[in-house]
Amino acid sequence: MNAKNGSNLCGDADGAMSNADGAASNADGAMGDANGAAGNADGAASNADGAAGMNGLSDMGEGPMAGPVSLRFLVSSALSLLGNSVAGVILPLVLLATTGDPLAAGALALITMIPQALAGVAGGALVDRLNRCDVSVVSDLISAASVAMLPVIDATVGLNFGWFVLFGLLGAVGDVPGMTARDSLLPAVCERDGVSMQRFVGLQQSVESLMTIVGPAVAALCMGLAGATNALVITACTSAAAAFITLTVPRGVGKVPSRENREPHPVRMALRSTKDGLRTLFAGSPVIRMSVLLSMCVLMVIGGYQGLILPVHFTLGDRADLLGYVLTVMSAGVLAASLIYAKLASKLSNRTWYSLSLVGMMAGIAIMATLPSYPVLLAGAALLGFASGPLSALLNFKVFDLIPDEVRGATLGTQNALMLVVAPVAVFIASVLVAWLGVGLAAIVLAGLWAAFTLYALLSSSMREL
């Protein structure tokens, strides 16, 4: 659910949206050609649909892991995530080099937090009304065009903090709705190919973890060859490639189910979308409600460690260079566990995966909370990442499976908006704890909070029958 950490860049809003509209108006023709070119795949997928039907969504791990359409969807998602990962490394360095102020990145994150959340809500409403393939394509093209403009602006009028604020505020137009559209497409893609959604979610999470590992290396290589600002072109290229690959996905996959009494007024439409999303997340299925609360808690605790506790710990020890290895080991653990889960999801019950993940994460955080010697800290990070992999894939699967398709965009858009708010709040809370208690006690307090929520999650009646 990473929206380029609030740092996606957009140029002039009208120009970017005009180009996006032009691309959208041509999308029908391009997708129609893609449908013809992918005729064999569509025919095979149609047969799969007939065999699997809606049961494909609730498949508990049997059947193929991916098919022709789902594979294209996966490649498109991977390219988009690779661009996010590369930009996440380069943009803070460009911002620091431009402003010379270490607080600029934090200020930018806070400034863009609310607009991103609003874009998540509005994007959810659009995803439930427009073709989801179209929204995904247009969003990627906006992202590609806006990021490609940054080196141009730097070479002409020059960059300053104001440009970063403007681009950060406008960046949500391209990034967050596209993130929601991609999430909403996943169940339909799995149904189209007749693949196991549970296994495919595990595969997708493996790819996400791989991109978080590969992205920093690609960023370092590009910066070494072209410089930091010019290296952002790779982000534009990956976003554009993601859009073009999405064009090869049959447009019917992105069709939104018909729904009576749709609200035509844009403001009321967004408000109704938010209401539908909140009702589905918190007043509907107890499993969805607990999954969302658990995901938010995981994001707050792990975000607190990644965003503040560990950076402060290594900075105080004058070894800030070691932080990257800890995060890499954690991502590698997620990747390994996600691959295992994708392969063996049906071998264990959902409840067993759930319990093992929670207990393993608690052990990993307990190790890290003591801020031990570096090798032990690496082991704790690896255990935390490895244990979190199956839990994240399982929760995503259950949420995708239980959300009604007609409100999927509203629900996922609202969820993305909540997560975009939770991340900076987690870092702020961690900063307050560090200021009051010191980094050592702050780490223990966060671990204690996670232990309490782990116990609640294990004993929760809503999660006993997964």
Task: Write up this protein.
The structure is a single chain. By secondary structure, the chain is mainly α. The chain contains 17 helices and no strands. It has helices spanning 13-37, 39-52, 55-58, 68-99, 104-127, 132-156, 161-193, 197-226, 228-231, 233-246, 266-282, 286-316, 323-344, 350-369, 374-402, 408-437, 439-459. The radius of gyration is 21 Å and the shape is globular. Mean pLDDT is 77; it is low at 1-61.
Top keywords for this entry?
466 residues; mainly alpha; 0% strand
Quick overview:
It is built from 17 helices and no strands. With 466 residues, it is mainly α.
CA distance, first residue to last residue:
23 Å
The largest sheet is: none
Order of helices and strands: HHHHHHHHHHHHHHHHH
Ranges where pLDDT stays below 50 over 5 or more residues in a row are: 1-61
Structural class: mainly alpha
User: Judging from the principal axes of the Cα atoms, what is the shape?
Assistant: globular
Q: Specify Rg, calculated over alpha carbons.
A: 21 Å
Helix percent reads: over 70%
Strand proportion, as a percent range, falls in: under 5%
Mean pLDDT: 77
Query: Tally of extended strands?
Result: 0
Query: Total helix count?
Result: 17
